[in-house]
Amino acid sequence: MLNKRYFLIYSLLMTAVVVASNFLVQYPVSGMLAGINLADLLTFGAFTYPIAFLVTDLTNRQFGPQVARRVVLVGFIAGVLLSILLATPRIAVASGTAFLVGQLLDISVFNRLRQQSWWKAPLMGSLIGSVLDTIIFFSISFAPVFGFIGPNDDFAIATAPILGVMTAEAPRWISWAIADFGVKMLIGVIMLLPYGALMSVVRPMPTASRTI
């Protein structure tokens, strides 16, 4: 009963993160930084989405990879349903695929490193998962090669200075991906603080008790 209660809590947290991220992705970050117009590169969703890795890692620490995958599945279903309602089918496919693959990779990396220094498993899991998440989402969403899933976004594939300030040019979606990944890296490091603070509270359960 206690395990089911925790599973419900983690599932609700994951769903809340996915819902918040799908909502906040509609709102660009306003302001300038080193001559870069942040509104052209980032949305507030980029700051909330990485929290999903924290939820996954805490679940994995307490109950192991099997339960963590179930929590990820709940978030995946919520994300796909929301994306279908709020975005195009192409974005829905990109979002769901990126989330599922990125989170499952995080679980795998975390599990391999969980016996090492306390910070290595959550940090490396979220960072490596974020790499694949970013590549999959922005490639499927905007790369012309995936045009068979849905229409290409002419503005996204048009060339522009990288990050809006460099002399080298690339399709705009490349700059969006770089900026998004940079934020994920930053938030991934920051998430070590709550993870470390919760380690004494969220203790690994005995192997026999992890199945829910």
UniProtKB/TrEMBL annotation:
User: What GO terms fall under cellular component here?
Assistant: plasma membrane
Q: Which residues cross the membrane?
A: 7-25, 31-55, 67-85, 91-111, 123-149, 181-202
Keyword field: Cell inner membrane, Cell membrane, Membrane, Transmembrane, Transmembrane helix, Transport
The UniProt GO MF terms for this protein read: transmembrane transporter activity
Family annotation (InterPro entries): YhhQ (IPR003744)
User: Membrane topology type, per the record?
Assistant: Multi-pass membrane protein
Q: What does this protein do?
A: Involved in the import of queuosine (Q) precursors, required for Q precursor salvage.
Quote the HAMAP family the UniProt record gives.
Q_prec_transport
Write down the NCBIfam families for this protein, in alphabetical order.
queuosine precursor transporter (TIGR00697)
Family that this chain belongs to: Belongs to the vitamin uptake transporter (VUT/ECF) (TC 2.A.88) family. Q precursor transporter subfamily.
Protein name as it appears in the record: Probable queuosine precursor transporter
Record organism: Rhizobium rosettiformans
